[in-house]
Write a structure and sequence with these properties.
The chain is rod-shaped, with a radius of gyration of 53 Å. It has 23 helices and 14 strands. By secondary structure, it is an alpha/beta fold. The N terminus and C terminus are likely disordered. It is 57% helix and 11% strand. A hairpin with a 5-residue loop joins strand 13 and strand 14.
């Protein structure tokens, strides 16, 4: 143990134990890791038990663009459109749909009672809070690469009876699906009905025009008694052809202006949010879909932040709401632009219609100027009447198609799988197994962090390397925990080997050399110097050395208690002349071990006794009579006697208790020994925890231990038991 590592092998050793060092720190602080882990686990269990039980139920619907179930007039093809589905997300969670759900299920009463706000707020506020609650509790998800939407509703209340929230979640999910289905059908029917009403107005206007034309034609025939038409061309053929073309263009322009007027009036009636969601249906404009999708993501993000407990003043919530407000402004601005564009388009169509009508009137006037005779006027009237009837027939055909479309069932939203009320409701949250697992992981993590933090704050001597690094001294012995006096029958045999190793290290120490008086001291009280002094004296006596054990700790003597003998007369009595050396020395049960107790003088003033000629004479006499003199001295810090004794002893061994006092205190004691002229033989690291600290591998396993027995021939036989993995 005295052998110092050479410079060549030091780096290799440091690399070899790098990971082991961390493991040994954790092993030494395992109580902290276990305690923190248990605390985190218990905390996780308690919090989990106190968390409200959340139940969820999911309804599955299919959403497609509106098309008749039986395609009578044209074959329709479906194309997957994620923007369209995102738009449906907005509609499903929109206020009109959720408000209708709350009304049908009377959720404002049930949830108001469950959450405790019904009796504290007005009916309107209660209704609005319930709508907001249902919107927050409703989550939508698209199944990948399909047009299927999952409507998931999560409730934690009402919580009585147990599992009642699961029933509400299933009923609300099914009601949301049904209300959305009905809303889609009503919206489609309303749009078609508006178009048919516009067609009816045009047909009625044509009927009046046709009736007027028929009356004029009948009056002309009656007035001129026309029975047949003349085939004579009056030179107006080209004008008539142009009139026919302009008439057709006029009819087309009038129909286009009527349709654009209908779309514009329909969009104007809607609010900005309704118009934004309906543009793709009414006019086929998908330009708002990306912004609507971004707006939905922001609303979902704000809902998630509110569910996470973030307040309205939280920076993330404020930022998200600001972005939502900015995006909503852009959406409404775009809707306003689209409305303006529809108005301008309608006005342009109307202007085009009026321009064509003006040109037609001009051409008609020219034709009349060029034409002569009643037959030409009659022929023109017949052609105009025929054109009016053809136009009416076209409008009637379109109206018939619209009536059929209105009566035909359409497939836009289909409930694929309604939410089911489970027989045995099981909450989705809290997840007991997951929470406990996270608690275990967090407990181990924080336990490890705390263990390393405590180790970082711990400035005591923890290892041989600490002694060599901070005290710049060698370690001559490592003493494990649970050491008892070796004269105690209950002492473990292998512990005597620890002191035999210590004896050999001291004996072979170049610093001690042939010195006989060895003083054991410590930095402060309670570090095990007395036990170490006794046991080293005991093993020296066992191997045949004649040993004197001196209890020089006059303030807190302990050796007489270990030997169960009287403390007087003793060292102090010899020094003051109250007793002789022979009178004070006591024989012990061990043949080669004598004991000089501390003694007790009449005036109880022991200060200064150690720095006297009488004390030197006592030690000189002891050197003359004994092979080994072991002195149990007081601690270095706070007792002046020890500093005086260091100069009288041949060698000083400093006992440091493992993980007890700061390194600074131990270094101060070591510096005091050297500064007072003491011969520091080495450091004894005491009270090593064999189950914690890495140094314990010296003694944790089986040991070589030796016992000595005197045979009849007087020789001493040394025996060994069991192979060891002890110190190198």
């Amino acid at each position: 143990m005295n052998n110092e590592p050479t410079p060549q092998n030091q780096p290799a050793q440091a690399d070899a134990v790098h990971f082991l060092d961390y493991w040994q720190i954790l092993y030494a602080r395992k109580e902290i890791v276990i305690a923190v882990s248990l605390l985190m686990i218990l905390t996780g269990i308690v919090i989990t038990r106190q968390m409200p039980r959340v139940y969820a139920s999911t309804a599955l619907i299919q959403v497609q663009r509106e098309q008749p179930n039986i395609p009578l007039f044209s074959q329709s093809f479906y194309r997957y459109d994620p923007i369209f589905l995102r738009t449906q997300f907005e509609i499903i969670k929109s206020s009109p749909v959720i408000e209708q759900v709350v009304r049908e299920m009377r959720l404002d009463d049930e949830m108001g009672l469950a959450y405790g706000w019904k009796n504290t707020q007005t009916a309107k506020t209660n209704f609005e809070r319930t709508v907001k609650l249902v919107q927050n509790k409703t989550a939508l998800n698209i199944r990948r690469d399909t047009d299927l939407i999952e409507i998931t509703v999560k409730f934690d209340k009402p919580d009585k009876p147990d599992g009642e929230a699961a029933k509400y979640a299933a009923n609300v999910a099914n009601t949301v699906a049904k209300v959305f289905l009905k809303w889609t059908q009503d919206e489609s029917r309303e749009t078609t009905q508006t178009g048919l009403e516009a067609l009816n107005e045009q047909i009625k206007e044509l009927d009046r025009t046709i009736a007027q034309a028929e009356e004029e034609l009948a009056a002309l025939r009656s007035k001129h008694n026309i029975t047949m038409l003349s085939d004579i061309d009056t030179g107006t053929a080209s004008i008539r052809a142009q009139i026919a073309q302009l008439t057709a263009e006029k009819n087309t322009a009038q129909m286009a202006a009527s349709l654009k007027k209908s779309k514009y009036e329909r969009i104007v009636e809607l609010s900005p949010s309704e118009a934004a969601a309906s543009l793709s249906i009414l006019i086929g404009d998908n330009s708002l879909m990306p912004m609507l999708s971004d707006k939905q993501k922001l609303e979902m993000q704000i809902a998630a932040q509110e569910q996470a407990g973030l307040g309205p003043q939280h920076p993330d919530v404020v930022q998200a709401k600001a972005l939502l407000e900015q995006l909503s402004g852009k959406v409404y601005e775009r809707v306003a632009d689209i409305k303006l564009g529809l108005k301008i388009d309608y006005e342009q169509s109307q202007s085009e219609y009026e321009m064509i009508s003006a040109r037609l009137a001009e051409e008609t006037a020219k034709e009349r100027e060029l034409s002569s005779g009643v037959s030409l006027a009659f022929e023109k009237m017949l052609k105009d009447l025929a054109m009016l009837r053809d136009r009416r027939a076209t409008l009637e055909d379109r109206k018939s198609r619209g009536d059929i479309d209105l009566q035909m069932p359409t497939t836009s939203v289909k409930i694929i799988e309604p939410a089911k009320i489970p027989e045995i409701p099981l909450p989705i949250s809290p997840n007991f197994a997951l929470n406990v697992t996270l608690s275990v992981v967090a407990g181990i993590f924080f336990g490890i962090v705390l263990a390393f933090f405590v180790e970082y704050l711990d400035t005591t001597i923890k290892s041989v390397e600490d002694v060599e690094k901070y005290l710049a001294s060698n370690v001559v012995g490592i003493i494990p925990q649970k050491i008892r006096p070796l004269n105690d029958p209950s002492a473990r045999p292998k512990h005597s080997e620890v002191y035999r190793v210590l004896r050999m290290n001291l004996k072979s120490s170049k610093k001690l050399g042939d010195g006989k008086v060895l003083m054991f001291t410590s930095a402060s009280a309670g570090e095990g110097k007395s036990m170490t002094s006794f046991n080293i004296a005991y093993v020296c006596a066992e191997v045949g050395e004649k040993v004197l054990l001196i209890d020089a700790d006059l303030h807190r003597p302990r050796q007489h208690k270990i030997l169960a003998t009287e403390n007087v007369p003793g060292l102090s009595n010899v020094v003051v002349g109250e007793a002789t050396f022979d009178q004070a020395v006591q024989k012990t049960a061990l043949e080669n071990l004598d004991f000089l107790p501390s003694g007790k003088i009449a005036n109880s003033n022991v200060y200064g006794l150690m720095d006297t000629d009488e004390m030197r004479a006592v030690l000189d006499e002891a050197r003359r009579r004994y092979d080994r003199v072991v002195m149990d001295a007081p601690p270095m810090i706070g007792v002046s006697d020890t500093a005086q004794l260091t100069r009288l002893a041949d060698g000083v061994a400093l006992v440091i208790q493992h993980r007890k006092y700061p390194r600074a205190l131990c270094k101060r004691a070591k510096d005091m020994i050297t500064s007072m002229g003491g011969n520091l033989v080495g450091i004894i690291l005491n009270n090593i925890n064999a189950s914690h600290d890495y140094s314990s591998y010296y003694y944790e396993h089986q040991y070589y231990y030796y016992y000595y027995s005197n045979e009849s021939n007087g020789r001493t036989k040394r025996r060994s038991s069991s192979k060891s993995k002890s110190q190198a």
